[in-house]
Design goal:
The chain is mostly beta strands and 320 residues long. It folds into 2 domains: 4-165, Sandwich (Jelly Rolls), CATH 2.60.120.260; 169-314, Jelly Rolls, CATH 2.60.120.260. The chain is built from 1 helix and 21 strands. The protein has one helix at 110-114; strands spanning 18-22, 46-47, 50-51, 56-57, 67-85, 96-102, 119-126, 132-136, 142-151, 155-156, 158-165, 177-178, 187-191, 215-216, 226-244, 255-261, 267-275, 281-285, 292-300, 304-305, 307-314. The strands form 5 sheets. Strands 12, 13, 15, 16, 17, 18, 19 and 21 form an 8-stranded antiparallel beta sheet that branches. Strands 1, 5, 6, 7, 8, 9 and 11 form a 7-stranded antiparallel beta sheet that branches. The chain has a two-stranded antiparallel sheet with strand order 2-3. The chain is globular. The two termini are 20 Å apart.
């Protein structure tokens, strides 16, 4: 994927992210930084602190220094790019910002994070009002937390940290896990079509609340079929597949099949072409599968899936 914004947002609140501390949040709360979806705004909507903003906004500084917010990534991993969004902040956005990262295992306090070593991902850069600012990141170290610095003060609507999850899979040694879970380090690396919604939704945590929280393709008119390719959390043996069409009443696929590979050339059939029902969780036992690294999910002819789960065991221990 050449566009880093096609990768999951590792900081997203719905993936477990949290804004654990901020220097100030006098006008608008820090938690807004990692909310899902586009920031909203309604003109002339005032509360006791002034105009209501769907973002994080600090007071006007009257002393030297700058404001900051520390974000715990919902999914620790490799950050490929940062988006700083100043949507709706026009006369009160910060003129400059930077982003740093650190890796602190366990459950650190704010004080422990403050004294941790931080690495610069995005240098101090100019911002515009009411605009998205994408910044590619070349650092490929695993990080658990980010620090957004704004100079000197102002409002930021959203901070997005797109990348690849790298959890510590040693926790699952001797246990089963969902080898296709985004939270465990899996990733959809390719798909035929993602017209209506992003393919990585299909391996996101939790249940899809509506159609947009799954993967849905455009209607095919060429006689072919749609598909996606999942890189597993690690080499593993799949024993149970869950194919969920919940919320897809009139646009579920008619059928599905699964194939897996460990080398990209030899493919093993895991599930033959099998009928699906709309708005239904389906569970299929997988027998005698070898250790695999990737699974291809084919749907016939098109449509949507709410979730794909591939439960099994890792072929070897170690970090994802």
């Amino acid at each position: 994927m050449s566009d880093f914004t096609a990768l999951p947002d590792l900081a997203l609140r719905t993936l477990g992210g949290a804004v654990v501390a901020a220097s100030d949040e006098s006008f608008a709360e820090r938690e807004s930084l990692i909310r899902p979806g586009r920031p909203g705004f309604q003109h002339h909507t005032f509360g006791p602190k002034g105009q209501l903003y769907d973002g994080w906004e600090t007071r006007r500084r009257r002393e030297p220094g700058h404001d900051w917010a520390i974000i715990r990534l919902g999914l620790p991993g490799l950050v490929h790019g940062i988006v700083i969004d100043t949507a709706w902040f026009t006369g009160n956005y910060p003129p400059h910002a930077s982003v740093e990262a650190t890796a602190v295992e366990g459950h650190p306090t704010v004080a422990e994070l403050q004294t941790a070593p931080w690495t610069q991902l995005v240098p101090r850069s100019a911002l515009r009002g009411d605009a998205e600012h994408p910044f590619p990141v070349t650092d490929r170290h695993r990080h658990t937390h980010l620090r957004l610095n704004i100079f000197p003060d102002g409002g930021v609507a959203r901070l997005r940290a797109h990348g690849e999850a790298r959890p510590d899979l040693t926790l699952y040694e001797g246990l089963g896990l969902d080898l296709a879970a985004l939270a465990n380090g899996a990733l959809v690396t390719d798909c035929s079509n993602g017209f209506y919604s992003a393919p990585n939704n299909v391996i996101a945590p939790g249940l899809a609340r509506h159609q947009a929280e799954g993967w849905e393709t455009a209607r095919r008119r060429d006689g072919g079929n749609d598909w996606l390719l999942i890189r597993l959390a690690g080499p593993g043996v799949i024993k149970l597949a869950e194919i969920d069409t919940t919320n897809l009443l009139f646009n579920a696929p008619a059928e599905v099949s699964l194939r897996g590979t460990a080398d990209g050339t030899t493919w093993t059939e895991l599930l033959p072409r099998t009928r699906l029902q709309p708005d239904t969780p389906h569970r299929f036992r997988i027998h005698d599968a070898p250790a695999l690294t990737h699974v291809r999910v084919d749907i016939y002819p098109d449509g949507g899936l709410a979730r794909v789960r591939l439960h099994g065991t890792l072929a070897g221990g170690g970090e994802g």
